[in-house]
Amino acid sequence: PGTGSAAGDATAVAHPNIALVKYWGKRDEQLVLPWTDSLSMTLDVFPTTTRVRLDPGAGEDTVTLDGTPLEGEPRRRVTAFLDLVRERAGSPLRAVVDTRNTVPTGAGLASSASGFAALATAAGAAYGLGLDATGLSRLARRGSGSASRSVFGGFAIWHAGQPDRGGDPDLGSYAEPVPVPVAALDPALVVAVVDAGPKAVSSREAMRRTVATSPLYRPWAASSQADLTEMQEALRRADLDAVGEVAERNALGMHATMLAARPAVRYLSAATVTVLDAVLELRRAGVSAWATMDAGPNVKVLCRRSEADRVAGVVREAVRGGSVHIAGPGPGARLLDA
Ligand code: 2P0
């Protein structure tokens, strides 16, 4: 994060990230502590820009998203986050929060990751918390788990932290960059938006239900740890096929845990499966293409940047009417100059 925004008024930009080894399930809802480590790539598309301005005269926070006041649970999550920042800053001041999203909100395209990474960065500066990147990552985590990873650009690992070590459990759970030979890996994610509408079940509720009721949750969490080790090795040697293979199986396994929850959570739609078939066809034709899906029906296809146009063309045929975007590794959260 840079400097430059004035005290009491700061603007930050952050990008969404897509997990190659997923975060799914909390061991502590209050502190947003996950059961498993996760690993992601921050994108260079769909930035969120958030301005936080302290308002000494105001009796409550004002929160707008793309110019429209937030209400209900989304507003409550932002004000609860600001309460946490105020508590740390020792400040009673309310704030005016203005957020601009370029990603469809609530469609499993990680708008909460870019959103809370930008909010943590802007609010941290506006309230003068003086946090380093690790501290910002911990703070962003409290807003939304995946936001801890969007504080960093490129590839990032979010450490679950040790459950029963004593001490402050907040301190052990944060993200940090993973060094990856990006030029050799040449990664791209082709984002297939098959449905940009908001989801029926929030990822928060879906995770809760999965952990509480799915007989597949524990086996997946255990295998995810092995996936993480394999993923880190594959990234280190810039082996895109190995990265894709692990990412795809980790995501399908996560969705299996949800399908086995009671009642089931199913984010994958017929359009999702059509794209998955297209990805299989690409692989049969010798193209390295691997799919991952989050808390929604949209598909992100990992491939080589040099083959991304071809992959996007095939995916575009498959989605018909949806939109297709090509993303590469993007930057971490940063403050804009005032
Ligand atoms: C991830 N997802 O690793 C996983 C994979 C969706 C599927 O992180 O409850 O919005 O705010 O911590 O971060 C989406 O969940 O959830 C998510 P909360 P978040 O990217």
List the topology elements.
Elements (H helix, E strand, L loop, with lengths): L8 E6 L2 E5 L4 E3 L4 E2 L3 E5 L5 E8 L6 E4 L2 E2 L2 H18 L4 E8 L9 H16 L6 H11 L3 H4 L4 E4 L16 E3 L4 H4 L1 E7 L9 H11 L3 H20 L3 H20 L10 H15 L4 E5 L5 E6 L3 H12 L3 E5 L6 E3 L2
Parallel strand pairs: 7-9
Antiparallel strand pairs: 1-6, 1-16, 2-5, 3-4, 5-10, 6-9, 7-8, 10-11, 12-14, 12-15, 13-14
Helix pairs in contact: 1-2, 2-3, 7-8, 9-10
This protein binds ligand 2P0.
Instruction: Indicate the CATH architecture of the largest domain.
Output: 2-Layer Sandwich
Query: What would you call the structural class?
Result: alpha+beta
**What oligomeric state best describes the polypeptide chains here?**
single chain
Taking the alpha carbons of the first and last residues, their distance comes to: 14 Å
Label the overall shape: globular
Order of the strands making up the biggest sheet: 8-7-9-6-1-16
Order of helices and strands: EEEEEEEEHEHHHEEHEHHHHEEHEE
Quantity of strands, as a count: 16
How many independent structural domains? 2
Alpha-carbon Rg, integer:
19 Å
What do we call the CATH topology of the largest domain? Ribosomal Protein S5, domain 2
Poorly predicted runs of 5 or more residues: none
